[in-house]
Amino acid sequence: MPLVDPAAARLFRERFSNEPTVVARAPGRVNLIGDHTDYNGGYVLPMAVEQEIVVAVRRIDQPTVQVASEQFGDSAFRTDQPDRANGWAVYVQGVLRELGFEGGLQLAVGSTIPAGAGLSSSAALEIGVARAVSALRGDEWNIRSASLKAQRAENDWVGMQCGIMDQLSSAGGEPGHALLIDCQSLDIQPIPLPPTLEVVILDTRSPRTLVGSEYNDRRAESTSAASSLGLASLREATTLDLDRLTGTSLIRARHVVSENQRVLAAARSLRSANFEALRHIMAESHVSLRDDYEVSSPALDSMVEAANGGPGLIGVRMTGGGFGGCCVALVERGSSEQFSAFALRRYRDDTGTIGRAYATSAAAGASILEGP
Ligand code: GLA
């Protein structure tokens, strides 16, 4: 299925009556396992997906950034004044500030990432803008430093205290591979996905509510659990440390400690194509996110239930920040269509909601489509 969206370059010509100088792409991501571990300095195992954002840019001579998107609307902000931009342009503004960009820009965006589903369209937008502007200026492209700048833009300018997983996945994706990321050292180890396996994203199409505030609360709870153990982060906590915690600190830390172990076990199981082990690891991850970290939702739980027993299923769990959004399923190659129909039918019978399924494969990280 051709997923590259030609809309960005076309939209650019339409709105600005000119040719873009650079067109860049940056993928969304799905996390196979390791949620709410990144900002705890832990391990994650995401992959970049085929669904992506395309960013077309050209310099202009005024201190203004004009942004255009068919999906989210047009807007503009000045680069010589500190006022915050409106709506989605705030992500563009945050990244340009981190890059120390001066001057003006026309920028058009197209996307094949379903909005609001939790597949990191915001990180893809940040990385897409960073990739395009770096090429425009002739800067060297560095996956880690671009990801850290994009994360800082989101933390400090947008106000979402996200970790580094989404930005690193969008910048560092490798075709056919998941990425085992150590979020403390930022080391990325590509893990080949067995060719006998397919990845299916199951979108609950239930609105994600309270994402920002609940997410920031979880982050604060984790930090406080670590400091009551006298540790810099929960990455350093062990199963034995859990005996020294109670209440909310205990259950949040228990999730992080066990999830880190599951990520490493999942990477080993992928390498040896041990599907039976993957099934258990993914099921345990979902239960831990649901009961200990409390970031699942009735819709996500129903989708996991609906997928269980589906034809060719290897493992299924909620994925990403939670509170709605998507589940990820690993299925045996060739069974994704039958499996998706099975899961979506049962999900609709249970919830009355029509979900969506996307079979996807691991894509390359951000790159330049046109221009220097
Ligand atoms: C969101 C954040 C990530 C990560 C996940 C949960 O996607 O942006 O940094 O914390 O939630 O794993």
Quickly describe the structure.
With 372 residues, this protein is of the alpha+beta class. It contains 10 helices and 12 strands.
- Return Rg in Å: 20 Å
- Please give the largest β-sheet: 8 strands, mixed
Task: List the ligand species.
Answer: alpha-D-galactopyranose
| Mean pLDDT across every amino acid position | 95
Task: Spell out the helices and strands N to C.
Answer: HEEEEHEHHHEEEHHHHEEHEE
Spans where pLDDT lies below 50 across 5 or more residues: none
The count of β-strands is: 12
Shape: globular
Measure the end-to-end span: 27 Å
Helix content percent band: 25-40%
Structural class: alpha+beta
Question: In what range is the share of β-strand residues?
Answer: 15-25%
Describe this structure in words.
There is one protein chain. With 372 residues, this protein is of the alpha+beta class. 40% of the residues lie in helices and 24% in strands. Strands 1, 2, 3, 4, 5, 6, 7 and 12 form an eight-stranded mixed beta sheet that branches. The protein has a four-stranded antiparallel beta sheet with strand order 9-10-8-11. β9 (313-318) and β10 (326-332) form a beta hairpin. The longest helix has 25 residues, at 247-271. The protein is globular. The model has no long low-confidence stretch (mean pLDDT 95). Bound molecules: alpha-D-galactopyranose. Alpha-D-galactopyranose binds at residues 31, 35-36, 38-39, 162-163, 165-166, 320-321.
